[in-house]
Structure formats: C-alpha cells, structure tokens
Amino acid sequence: MHLTKLLRFWMICFCGLVLFYSTHANETKHTHKEAEATIKKIGEYMIEVLSNRALTQDDKEEKFRILLRQDFDLKAIGEFTLGRYKTKFKAADNEHKQSAKAGFSPLEQFHKDFEELIVEMYASQFGNYKDQKFSVDHSTNGPDGAVFVYSTIIRTDGPPIEIVWRLFKIDSQYKVMDAIVAKVSMSMSQRREFAEIFQKCQRDKSGQIPCFLTEIRKQAEHFDKIGNANAENNSGHSIKTANK
Amino acid sequence: MTFLTRLLFCSCYLWALILNSSVYGADIPSSQPVHETHEIIADGDNEEEIDEGLPNDPLEPLNRVIFGINQSFDAAILRPVTHAYIGLVPAKGRKAVGNFLQNLTEPISLLNHGFQQNGNGMKVTVVRFFLNTFMGFFGLFDVAKECGYDAQKQGFMDTLAKAGLGPGPYLVLPLFGPSNFRDAAGLAADWVYDPVYYVLKNQNKNLPYFHLGMKAVDLRASVNDLVDSMNKSVDPYARYRLLYSEYRRGQNANVEEYDAPVPDNVQPNQNIKEDQNASHQTS
What we know:
The complex is a heterodimer of chains A (244) and B (283).
Chain A: H1 2-51, H2 57-71, H3 74-82, H4 86-99, H5 106-123, E1 133-141, E2 147-154, E3 161-170, E4 173-181, E5 184-185, H6 186-200, H7 208-235
Antiparallel strand pairs in A: 1-2, 2-3, 3-4, 4-5
Helix pairs in contact in A: 1-2, 2-5, 3-5, 3-6, 5-7
Chain B: H1 3-24, E1 38-43, E2 46-51, H2 60-88, H3 91-104, H4 106-115, H5 119-134, H6 143-146, H7 156-162, E3 170-173, E4 177-180, H8 181-193, H9 195-203, H10 207-222, H11 224-231, H12 236-251, H13 270-282
Antiparallel strand pairs in B: 1-2, 3-4
Helix pairs in contact in B: 1-8, 2-10, 3-10, 4-5, 7-8
C-alpha cells in the first residue's frame, strides 16, 4: 500500500514535469515563430519593393521609410548611436525647454535627421539589388531578453551573407533593434562613425551639437545623390520625381 | 624571393607587433565579448574625453597616402580586371574559381587550427581538403559543404587574436589594403609558411604571383558592390577603417553578446517573460 502511494506520488510529479516542460517548449517556440515571421515579412516586403520596376527611387524610399517606422525602434537605435553624447543632447534639450524656444529641440532634430540619414544611406544601395533571395534560418533567445533571428541573403554573384536580427517585443509587436551583417553590427558601426563626427566637431565655432547635426545632414544629402545616380544608371533615364 | 628574405620580412612585422603591444598595450581581445566602454575624466574646466569607440590610427597621415595609392591601383587595374572577369565568367564559373582558391587555403587553416589546439577544426579542415580535392575536381566544387562540413577558415591573424593579442593601430598595407599591426603580422606569417606557395613555385616561379592575383580578383569580385559603395561614401578612408575594424572585431566574437540598443521600457529578461505570460493568457 505504501509502495503504491509512493509510486502514485512519483507518477504525478513526472506527469507535472512533462506538462510543464511541454508547455514551456511550446511557449519558446511561439516566441521564436513570431519574431521569425516579422523578419520574413521584412525580407519579403523589401524584395517586393526592390524588384518592382514600376516604382521610382522616391517611391522605394518612402516604402522603406514606412517599414523603418513600423518594424524598427528608430528612437532607441538613434539614441544608442549617440553613445555617451546622448547626455549632451539631453542637457541641450533641457536648455531648449527652459528658454521656451520655438521649433524642434536638439534631440528631436537628431531623431528627424537620423531617420533621414538611415533612409538615404540604405536607399543609395537599392540599385545594387540583383535577384538575391532571402531566407530565415532559425532563432534563439538572447541573454538580455532579446530574440535573435538568423537569416541569409543568397547571392548569385558571391558567397551568401548572414544577417542576425536583434528584436525586442514592444507593445505586443516585435521591433528590430539591430541588424548584424556578416558579424558587423549596424548600430555599433553607426555609433563609432558618430563618435568620429563628434570628435571632429569638438572645436567647431557653431557648437558641437549644431556641427554634428549639420554633418549628418550633409551625409544624408550625399547618399541621396548617390541613390539618384544609381537609379538613373539602372533605368537609363531619371526616375526621380521632382516634387521631393 | 628566397625563404630567408620572407622570414626576415615576417620577423620585421613580428618585431613591429611586439613593439606595438608594449607601446600601445593590448586592445580588447577579439575572443572577448564586444562591449563599448567609455570613460570621462573631468579635470576642472577642461574635460578630457577618452572614447574607445574612436579609431586607433596614429599613422593616419601615412595610411591615407598608402590608401590613395591603393585606390589608384584599384581604379586603374583591379577594378577594370574584376569587371571584365565578372562580365566574361558566369556566376557558376566564378563560384568554382572561388571554391578552388578556398581549397588551397585549407593547409594554412589546418596549421592554425593546430596552433589553436582546435581538434574539431583540424578534423573538419582535413576532411574538407580531401573531399573537395578528390571528389570535387581539385576543389572546383565544395562537396564537403554539401556533406555538412562548412569551411572554418583560420589564419595566423586569428591565432594571434585568439591568443588574446590586441589589434593595435590601424594600418593600410600597400596593395593588401586595410589591416592592423596584429593582422599584418599574421598575414606575413601565413605567407612564410604557406605550403601552397612552395608547391606552386616549384612548378613555375611566376605561378605564386598568378595565384595571388587570382585571389585578389576573386575577392574583389565577391565584394564588388560593397567596395563600389564604400568608394562613394563621404570619406572612403574612414569608411574602410570603420568597417574593417568592426569586421575583424566580430570575427571571433559571439554576436549575441554585442552591445546593442535596448528599448527604454524593457528591462533585461522582461521580454521573454512577457511573451510567456501572453501565451498563458491566450491558451
């Protein structure tokens, strides 16, 4: 009798454990599937946009901008790329608020210019698209709560390129926080590039922040020109609309 | 070039490396997790800022001159040859050439896996070399990859990085392009003990140079769009320096340990817990 009770106790424990682990495994799988679906959607959307010959360079840029706003946490990425200079921006923001000046605060202006820079920088590469294929391979849970989705761009003119996407769930939606292309983090590279610009602007008469903002605006304009030139080369005629 | 000259050349690089390590100190070893660290030293009214994110490039004026020469060489010779190669040889042919050249680097990888005491890497490299040489028509086809043996390319620069040696200052090498003190020494060491060099030289003294030229064209073709876009950036020199440093930093690092943006309202590990709670509620 005693043995039967003990056996029953262990059976219940075993069943409980099996139930717990099976539910847990399903949840983990569920987490990954949703993040993978986000990346798959991004990949398919971009291939559709890039391969659509009816779209002008401006149309493609706008569609890319919509994607960025929807699926990327541009605010967090932007502030990360500022690194320690973020505190300088916050101090300048406080000054702006206290002086009750009209217009955008320095940080708001940065977010605006940062979005423009990212759009123009990546849009300048649109002309290089040559029937690449995009596949989502697998995903893992990151150590700090992020989800990593591993994907590959299969190229016809070179070895495949691995892209690891770092996502976080914000307000029930997965948002991309970083893309690591061939082990190079895009946000970290941008941060280092910005650090160099800040360093250059250290002794600027107009002030470090205005100089920095002018520099990134110049970069955006430069990439815009390259994007337009690439689009013209690819189509053989100007497809850029005049009303930008 | 005799073995002695090559050895002397390599020794110069290694001496430069040792001097670099003692003068500048070792940077973050590539095998360590990549984290950005900042330090601000306030000294009265003068704020001296030390930022590890800034490039370690004390030789910038010299590097820029060599970079300019390399760019001219690329524009005049390498780029036109690469474009002709891309135009004349179909993608499958270029892939076969790439596979063949990759197969010739396996002996170097084997030695470096040995230096790193990486038994699995040695095994994979040996299997890859024999499978691709005998079943893949002298390496033209990557049969080993189809069998689940992915390339684990390692050079002496990786061995030095895994031994904990920092990259040191950025360096632009004539013709070879972006590098740093550690990687340049690694490149020189690979050049000295590469068995393929001696095998090819025994056949014909010009064959090693042809091999080197083919490697340059194959590499340029595989990153053609990237190189063209980097050349169009505001400051191509700074762009090459940044991407090379980031690429090398990532080579022996775990991407999941990179420093990266985190949303304001998400605390570490909150993300998964929230997701699990949501699943409980839905189920």
